[in-house]
Amino acid sequence: xxxxxxxxxxxxxxxxxxxxxxxxxxxxxxxxxxxxxxxxxxxxxxxxxxxxxxxxxxxxxxxxxxxxxxxxxxxxxxxxxxxxxxxxxxxxxxxxxxxxxxxxxxxxxxxxxxxxxxxxxxxxxxxxxxxxxxxxxxxxxxxxxxxxxxxxxxxxxxxxxxxxxxxxxxxxxxx
Amino acid sequence: xxxxxxxxxxxxxxxxxxxxxxxxxxxxxxxxxxxxxxxxxxxxxxxxxxxxxxxxxxxxxxxxxxxxxxxxxxxxxxxxxxxxxxxxxxxxxxxxxxxxxxxxxxxxxxxxxxxxxxxxxxxxxxxxxxxxxxxxxxxxxxxxxxxxxxxxxxxxxxxxxxxxxxxxxxxxxxxxxxxxxxxxxxxxxxxxxxxxxxxxxxxxxxxxxxxxxxxxxxxxxxxxxxxxxxxxxxxxxxxxxxxxxxxxxxxxxxxxxxxxxxxxxxxxxxxxxxxxxxxxxxxxxxxxxxxxxxxxxxxxxxxxxxxxxxxxxxxxxxxxxxxxxxxxxxxxxxxxxxxxxxxxxxxxxxxxxxxxxxxxxxxxxxxxxxxxxxxxxxxxxxxxxxxxxxxxxxxxxxxxxxxxxxxxxxxxxxxxxxxxxxxxxxxxxxxxxxxxxx
Lengths: 175, 438
What we know:
Chain A is α+β, with helices and mostly antiparallel strands and 175 residues long. Chain A has seven helices and four strands.
């Protein structure tokens, strides 16, 4: 498998690197990993991380360190859509556990798994800082607040659409 | 009195023209044309403004500590890595009034003589990052950013930088590490960021809400700001209220408002959800001690508890708490305190960066023990074991995440020990209670 950044992304990345002082291009690592992950269907391979290292003139280990530390980066394949459900205290007060159980039974998978057709990954996450709209689900870069079973059904329905994906380039305006 | 949310509902306030028409950027004009940087610092010092991210450190003092003796560049960083459970005020501010933050950033950067500033925003909030970048673009287009702003000779660039899902990056030195492209491992202090922060240069890191207060202070003076609120807690504060209340949301209150009024007035929380009673409140984000109903409404001395730094902390850790970030989590009588605590224990276990053993190991232990108790497999001695693990984390870590993980455990056991004992004594009943049904 050969990964290549789109020319559009290469241009964007060179702009991002300029936001940091000369010699501090490593600062662009997180933004670049976000872009790379979006271009590879939501996950990072060793090959991609090595390319990113080369691009930023740093050691591959420096990229691995970061990619394994932050919860938004995935090192294994994920579904076309990732349904991230917040499981921290305030969301639990408002029915997050019931919502998770509902989604698990509806999709026939446990949190952390992907449906066999590769459409949906169900993921438990910690506080999304939207506790006023608990329970909260994140899909792609969108928040869905005050969730209930009915709204969850609508979201699942949306996920079945071909063009609906969690892996669009986050720097593009239309998220 | 509103400083932060005054114009939040004005249609189009996200756009430069509307914000400007309502007096926006007048503080930048005033500062850049009539003040020197140290005068801005002095106003903020006089205002008594305390950091709104949770620690409550005086902002003017933080700025005053900036090392001006070095030739190195200085950096202003806005901490928009909001993630303290119960807290959702910064996102609200940035989403609805992004220019207020941009104006505050210009003033703060000018005050510490920084010509490059970053807004570090949590990676989940790319939609907000776009709103901010649009506002920043408008500020450039109108001459409030870039080279030689308003002909003053002062130049400033502001950039947004996303995180990627790590609560610890809200800690200022971890944030700096993350901005340098590293794991978010907090640094030992000293040196403090004011001396050696981003790229080893003098740096100030301030919370979104803190920075959004600066335009008002520059326009109206620090002395005027200090008249608001209480002596030790000047100004207003955003409180983000959630949990079992009728009207969850973000509210701006003048510091010193009685908790009772905030909780029961229809202007704010509107009371507990239908037919339920108040059981407990976590008043300042999940890291601060929980208080049962009687102690959140009244201090141990029997006086009304107020929403201020000093009133909330009255009674110390036994019967008081902290204002923290203003994340106000309300629980009614249906709440199982063991289960609620387990969710926070899981959170801190998940978010510990793993650098210090007491936190890395201890948060895992606490999660495991609570899981056992919660599932009816706990032993009576587990309760004291839990408290002792918390005690061994507290104060023994580089950054405050260890304390933040320990305090909820300590206070939940302290105030609701009977519920923990019930879980040990009635394992079957507790299993039944916790059956999640779809």
